[in-house]
Amino acid sequence: MNLEQKLNQVLAHFEELRTKLSSSMEDPAEFARLSKEYSDLTPIAEKILEWQQSIEEKKNLDDLLLDPALDKELKEMAQDDLQRLQDRLPNLLLEIQVLLLPKDVDDDRNAILEIRAGTGGEEAALFAAVLLRMYQRYAELQGWRFELMHENDTGLGGIKEASASISGRGVFAKLKFESGVHRVQRVPETEAGGRIHTSAATV
Questions:
Q1: Separation of CA 156 from chain center
Q2: What is the pLDDT of residues 9-36, one digit of tens each?
Q3: Which residues contact 159 (CB under 8 A, 6 or more apart)?
Q4: Positions of E strands within 46-171
Q5: Is residue 168 left, alpha or beta, with left meaning phi > 0 and alpha meaning psi from -120 to 50?
Q6: 145 pairs with which residues across the strands?
Q7: pTM exceeding the 0.70 threshold for the entire prediction
Q8: Which tens digit of pLDDT belongs to each residue from 33-60?
């Protein structure tokens, strides 16, 4: 089975789920199962439809540019649109391939985020605070619930360690690869001589 057939199969299953959902209202357990499967498949189906639409749009632009009667201004606009699509299509395809990867059974779970300042003194503590604010802002953008559980600050704007509970859809799937040591090289606010320092924090 080639990729196009696989994508069409996914869309066919998506439509089948939509039909089944409308006829399973009397069975709460079956309705809940179908609803979750439909919800999980929705972002994949939307991305496939976007990709197919882009392919069709590219074909139309290719045909348009073959028209000898096309005036210069329209031709330039069509070429710009075609270039935009040619740049976008590989990324779209990659996004689809990532979405089609088998899911980790823990992907829909919530997470406890722990951040600890590492080597680098007060600058590391400031970096840890920046990381905490970054994850909090990211959680807000994702529509997740972010609850600070513990914070040990330095009194100078930094944190020695902090932990937060993050809950919502796909939290663990999107945060699990953040685990590890994060490093930054910069001229710190605490450095008067303008020297570059390396600071670290663990997540």
A1: 33
A2: 999 999 998 888 887 777 788 888 888 8
A3: 115, 117, 125, 128, 129, 132, 151, 152, 153
A4: 111-117, 145-153, 159-167
A5: left
A6: 167
A7: no
A8: 888 888 888 989 999 999 999 999 999 9
